[in-house]
Design a protein that fits this description.
- This protein is mostly helical.
- It has a single domain (9-113), classed as Helix Hairpins.
- It is built from 2 helices and 2 strands, in the order αββα.
- Strands 1-2 form a two-stranded antiparallel sheet.
- A hairpin with a 2-residue loop joins β1 and β2.
- α1 (9-51) runs antiparallel to α2.
- The longest helix is centred in the last third of the chain and has 45 residues, at 71-115.
């Protein structure tokens, strides 16, 4: 820092980037939780479909309506949806790892710039139990 106690513009930019990365991490985690819930719902529905006999009547939601549908068609649709959710979840996990790595690198750079690394501010927490 300079003698007047002001934070240099470069450090201000890095702090702003750090805040943006934290917001990205939070957004990705939120999306991940939503996709995990959708994936679990699809898996539960497939499990319940598996318990039904071949002649069971099955309905599916279409907007505000419940429509009678063929069991195998619903099963295929749910399987495809589950695959899509699984792929999306893996993508979000990779994205979370990349953004968190950038966050930690920038955080370390800021610590070194502000206080020499170990004597500065306490580390910021980035991992939140899901």
């Amino acid at each position: 820092m300079n003698g007047s106690g002001q934070i240099p513009p470069q450090l201000q930019n890095q702090l702003a980037q750090l805040q943006q990365l934290k917001a990205q991490i939070d957004a990705v985690r939120s999306q991940k939780m939503q996709v995990e819930a959708l994936l679990k719902d699809a898996e539960n529905a497939l499990q319940e479909l598996g318990k039904l006999d071949k002649n069971s009547v099955v309905y599916k939601n279409v907007g505000e309506l419940m429509i009678k549908a063929e069991k195998e068609n619903v099963k295929t649709e749910l399987s495809e949806r589950r695959e899509t959710y699984d792929l999306r979840l893996k993508t979000l996990e990779r994205q979370e790892e990349r953004v968190e790595k950038k966050y930690q690198q920038l955080q370390q750079q800021l610590r070194e710039a502000l206080g020499g690394g170990s004597g500065g501010a306490p580390p910021m927490q980035t991992t939140v139990g899901v």
